[in-house]
């Protein structure tokens, strides 16, 4: 019944396609039928081979990099595999054969000392560095400015569980450790990280830290930035060990300056995170609510209560109708009541605490208008939880434009934000003659607010990059106008930079710029990412 | 049974003495007996009148300040009342008649615009600013460098509940609002902040933010830095509105750069904080554990559980023996079993969630070797919870040296830290011929660690400032050597600055310095506090 998450394997994504190439997903007949209703009846043009430009790395710089002991590659295949991330625009550029964002070399250190040595070489030879580990960015985090030759600093060989403090429940990982590998290593000691973003199969510990990842169990185990107690950061001006205690009143919390810094201030080499014993019990339920407003009110009540589940997620009517919470049967008729909204409620822990929370939460949800659907919809969601994005490639193949975006605000602003973003996207796509389906779910809640995650499907036009840019710009403007944050867990990268700078304003921007200039005075690290 | 905390009044501390002058505490005969055992048998010299030096503020600057619309005072009494905080060294200097730290003027704006105008005048006239609100600093936070004339920027007239978002459970307060006033204003709407540091009667919303205050219900409602969702900060380079969402992946969390900044980066003028409905039920219990190690293990189990109480506190054998957890009967025989350690466990919330947590926690504590003592010791602690520090003045009067200090570390390091700090203090005081009693409690716990709060009593020597400095330096060195943080909730101020800079190291220091220089380029704000 309660399969361990550690059976999920590390997956090496193929450049330009999300997920496990050995286990792709195919569109069901019912999804194809739904696409037809949106006028999607012609497959996308066949992808063009991606040609990458010649490396701009000079012989001297190459020799100096090789002298650090790190592995260095300048061949086309390796460089192509470290180009861009996995946003729909990234995938579309791949399909068009656009290789212009390829790094000039890929450098893979195996030790922290080699990372520092590579930083020094980059400084001497005027190179830019783009730290790479999971590569699952969906906001242009792999696309630094290209004025100088760009090195992809591949951290995947900085891997492993360095230390486990079972008493304090703290694990120290090398930053390049992939999440499934981290779980496998912890499980040998009876522990678990419990951090399950949808990019789980590909993402790394360091990547989750610098992008403020949020996992599907965030109400239970916290966001990744809540879980981090310490970081080692290699900066061009030296190494920093950050975080001496769980919490402290000794000045600003400088962990929070590196978390979310997206490689622009330094290269995170090790991360100390809170872990917990492997749960003895995992229980996932489906609940039905008559509409989104009722479900949302129930989410809020639980988020503001002292007794909480481990997982809490609510699909709106559109997402529930398309059954997207269970991608294995997406588009098929839902097993539960017709209409309304599906909520997934999960509990993990030992028998006693799960029982205690289950009884309390069940009583609350019944009181708030929910109908229990039993464990089947919850388990179906749990088993398929990482496979939603797998649908994107076959949808793009079929001629659809499909993309997601997310935001976060306070509870009192959530309905307005959902309505405004939906209207902005459907308006911008409708103006181009392509009506869109916009679905939404809440998957991360806090006492004071919640995230909104939108999935958009429309017919792809001849230039889908421009078509989507109009929708994305409209969504960004709606988010800004509503006073919400431009991203809840996808980070800033290059795609969100403009809206992000509006969001924080001049004073905060000057503080960030000052930190950047102090730690990376020559601007080697990720130029153009986070800050211009 | 469950008296509301809102019956506790705002208290105007008298300079040089902690707490409510209308309700002082006196030493019981049994405490006096305990002091005799430490050789404390001669009262301290009578306090000398404090003479403050003439103001250094020029007529031009004074006129310009008055032109801002803020109230300006340069009389001796007002300046004396804004001098230093309430550490034992602060109190000792008062007793010695030392007025050398008095500000040159006290400026009290009533609006955010006036704050900005005062910053501009300070810039033009080369004045320093020391933001003041609660004035309860115990780490030299009211003692900036005095190279330039010093203004005490009194924020107590920036007061009130500006907005209450009941749906999102967010209250917006003017920074100078005192905590009991904040509770009174919220209670009118059925809400509560639930932040109860021991300085509750005097402390303010803004002060709690910039010093990362921790309240006695931190396991239930979080530390103050957990509760803050937004801040307005007036800096010399402009106003910043920080915090657009509960949590976000949009870059570093810049709230965490202002929280703990102790007025060195800007003047916090409003704070948005998470609040909760007034609890229908408050239940506080006492528990007995055979020794500190057993009690500590139980604390850790609860801190690492998904189901937690609202208050959790453990006194060690020494503190339990002196009955310090209940200052009204300090030194009297404890009501419970002789020996061992007293734990206080409190629950607040609605009937259903308190019942649920109470049953779970009770079962855990019984399993972990605790003996339930019923509600009497818990209620006694709750009623007297702010009065512990009231004992300090009569103890100083009686000829004792008494002071507290606190630190925080990870669980696996806690026993070592407690032993090393205790040995450092007793060693440093013993070397001076004054054996000391060192008591300790844990009052803030996290999944990965906990705070330690020490209370020290010894006979005062002729120069108690030097006597204590030796003990404090030894404690600081022990904390640093153990890798712990120099402060859990008392902040850095001037007293902890040296050890703090060692704790964070050069790279983090340069990042902080860069932020300081960007936001306060002429160094007007709190020179010497937090950073040199």
UniProtKB/TrEMBL annotation, chains A, B:
Its cofactor is FAD. Substrate binds at residue 392. Residues 99-278 form the FAD-binding PCMH-type domain. The active site is at 453 (proton donor/acceptor). GO terms for biological process: lipid biosynthetic process. This is Alkyldihydroxyacetonephosphate synthase. Pfam families: FAD-oxidase_C, FAD_binding_4. Keywords: FAD, Flavoprotein, Oxidoreductase. GO terms for molecular function: alkylglycerone-phosphate synthase activity; FAD binding; oxidoreductase activity. SUPFAM superfamilies: FAD-binding/transporter-associated domain-like, FAD-linked oxidases, C-terminal domain. The keyword Flavoprotein applies.
